[in-house]
């Protein structure tokens, strides 16, 4: 997993967004998608844990608390591999801009915090090329927690890391679990050259910076289909 899709000669480009739950990354990637579509670009959006092949199994495992750290990791790797082979690679070969709400770095951070060996986790995803551009939306834990609670009154079990038994209090468990993930992300951001975005800034300011960086790193006119006479 050393080369980007551009370096491998793919005509398409893959842009990934990463961040803690509640960082606002999903809002930003949807705004980016709308903007790129308005430019006339060929765009495809994919999100973590969305493969129809394994989504129901993941949901069932979470609801019944059946997933150990290892099975949790394996089932998400299966989900990613299915989407990678069926969606991402074909569309990148066809010259699309592919936007991913979470990529392999989510597993590198979460699975390691859950106790899986780092080398083993990375080995699961060794078939995947690196994104051409990765954004990390950096938000303090309290900000992320407040945003999540604004949308729903109760934290999700795995979102709060309650399966790790860090604390019986969901809010304290969230802070401990997400705090550890945050530390992993900071290390990954250096290793994989993430573009850090201050997720506390106003939404429009964040989006302006994201668009500026995308336009700088990607030749957008090349993703606008040519009209036939």
Largest sheet: 5 strands, parallel
CATH topology: Rossmann fold
Please identify the structural class as seen in this structure.
alpha/beta
Distance between the termini: 42 Å
Level of helix content? Answer: 40-55%
Spatial extent as radius of gyration: 18 Å
Shape: globular
Q: What's the average pLDDT?
A: 91
Fourth-level CATH superfamily? P-loop containing nucleotide triphosphate hydrolases
The helix tally amounts to 8
Strand order of the largest sheet: 2-3-1-4-5
CATH architecture: 3-Layer(aba) Sandwich
- Unreliable stretches (pLDDT < 50, length at least 5) are none
What is the domain total for the residues? Answer: 1
Q: What's the number of extended β-strand segments?
A: 5
Please describe the topology of this protein:
Layout: E1 13-19, H1 25-38, E2 43-47, H2 55-63, H3 69-93, E3 97-101, H4 104-113, H5 118-124, E4 133-138, H6 141-151, H7 170-191, E5 195-198, H8 203-217
Helix pairs in contact: 1-8, 4-7
Describe this structure in words.
With 229 residues, this protein is α/β, with parallel strands linked by helices. Helices cover 49% and strands 12% of the residues. Helix 1 crosses helix 8. It is globular, with a radius of gyration of 18 Å. The mean pLDDT is 91.
Describe the structure concisely for a colleague.
This protein is of the alpha/beta class. The chain is 49% helix and 12% strand. It has one domain (13-221): Rossmann fold (3-Layer(aba) Sandwich).
Comma- or semicolon-separated keywords:
alpha/beta, Rossmann fold, 5 strands, 49% helix
